[in-house]
Amino acid sequence: MSEILVLVEHADGDVKKVTLELLTLARSLGEPSAVWAGPGYSDAAKAKLAEYGAAKIYVADGEEIVDYVVAPKAELLAQLVSERSPAGVLVAATAEGKEIAGRLAVKTDSGVITDAVGVGEGFVAEQSIFGGGVNVRSRVTKGTPIVAVRPNSTAPVAEAGAGAEEKVAVALSDTARAAKVVERVKQERGARPELTEAAIVVSGGRGVGSGENFSIIEKLADSLGAAVGASRAATDAGWYPHQFQVGQTGKTVSPQLYIAAGISGAIQHRAGMQTSKTIVVINKDAEAPIFEIADFGVVGDLFQVVPQLTEEIEKRK
Amino acid sequence: MNIVVCVKQVPDTATERKLRSDDKTLDRDAADGVVNELDEYAVEEALRLKEAHGGEVTVLTMGPARATETIRKALAMGADKAVHVTDDALHGSDALSTSYALAEALKKIGFDLVILGSESTDARTGVLAAMLAERLGAPQLTLANKVEVDGQAITIQRVTDYGYDRVEASLPAVVSVVEKINEPRYPSFKGIMAAKKKPVETFGIADAEIAADQVGLASAWSEVVDFAAAPPRAAGTVVKDEGDGGVKAAEFLASKKFV
Prior knowledge:
The structure holds 2 protein chains of 2 kinds.
Chain A: E1 3-7, E2 10-11, E3 14-15, H1 17-27, E4 31-37, H2 43-51, E5 56-60, H3 64-67, H4 71-84, E6 88-92, H5 95-108, E7 112-120, E8 124-129, E9 134-140, E10 146-149, E11 164-167, E12 180-186, E13 200-204, H6 214-224, E14 227-230, H7 232-236, E15 257-261, H8 267-270, E16 278-283, E17 296-299, H9 302-316
Helix pairs in contact in A: 4-5, 6-9
Chain B: E1 2-7, E2 9-11, E3 33-35, H1 37-53, E4 56-62, H2 68-77, E5 81-85, H3 95-109, E6 113-117, H4 128-136, E7 140-150, E8 153-159, E9 163-170, E10 173-177, H5 189-195, E11 200-203, E12 222-229, E13 237-240, H6 245-255
Parallel strand pairs in B: 1-4, 1-6, 4-5, 5-11, 6-10, 7-10
Antiparallel strand pairs in B: 2-3, 7-8, 8-9
Helix pairs in contact in B: 2-5, 3-4
């Protein structure tokens, strides 16, 4: 069966959920080989990758890979593409994942498709563009297909693979060492999941009214184990940090459940969340365009509805 | 410091955007063209660096004739001159071709620093700056929310999932900026008038030594198989809060097994 390279996303040694999704997807296209780049590789990580179908695991776990911006990971993948001639390469469509895909495409003279929400036979990728208004199917026509897949596009399903480990030595070029990471600054986000990866996202907008009031959005999010997002109106007003902005110029999310409270639903916002599987809306304005894409909507005061919803969820646990 | 800022004209996101039925490329005539929003932050950052360190800001764009509107806006904000890469042969270029053509133009122009917005609101690939860095063999300083230059040294804060990385490199370099790195200025009346007199050089592909077989729709590295308007979402249930809206929402979530 043809080999499919899957670049592993990991944090603090743990394999991220999106990688399990990509391995699941890769199994429908061929035989997945996981590619581990950077420190933190362990038996637990190996077991996890094998559990989700990695037939092989290429391990390049030197510090150096993460000491420089993006380029080393692209060189590692380019080396594997050249040595193994895989049928395709899958990466997560995170900001960095897409950059890796872009450099890899240049290095291997291959086409790249970003933000796919599905990949089918013949590596035909599905994308949702123009703020969710148009669905496109496209494919790479030159080189090795490189596809960046949006988190939450596939439900991860375990199916054991051999997990045969192979160490990979990469000799980084001088250009790969041109942009050096000299410090990593972690900003507290508590125990909440990462916004782009979260299965559930609860977002607040203009209707929330102040930074302090975001605590009711956070409480609802915590009752569901969700990430917190915000509309541009809310981040522009300084009520919530900018890195949590969902929308055209912020993050794109595609969770199983998206709850929008006090958000009117301008294209700016919809472009970042329209591919969410289920959308629940709470807004006092019955005319707000966000209701057009709601699976369930409550026309009402979010200061009444949201706390009541949180309380009800806690009761049902 | 010789700063080149790349800008793109994109269809206004407030209007309906379409693909053309004939060649499946973006229908640029169907919507008003505006400056890609994130590129305004790139222009502003370029102007601030010039104000602090001296030098010159050149606007570089690739696109059809009407993209001059976008060039004028950047010049009105304060950029000194512009290069417009325009040629029918470029129509339908994908990210690989675009990065190739821009890299060739950049080699012609010369630069200490290239600044871009981190993505465009139309294609939203977010790959161009990384591809340019790769093609130019220059340090990739992307997703910056802070840029500092000191002589030949450049440091940025690169936005990450967990916060940010501080990244160091030497000029020449490629920088992409995220929203909120600064507050883009509005062109003044004086700026708008002055922009009309600023030099805009037009490059065809031959002028920039861009190989014809590396650009355009026929040479693209990927193709659109087909496309269709997204089916409208099935109409949902909307209830008016009668004091039990939260309970009803919880019941809906329970019916979908979220709680």
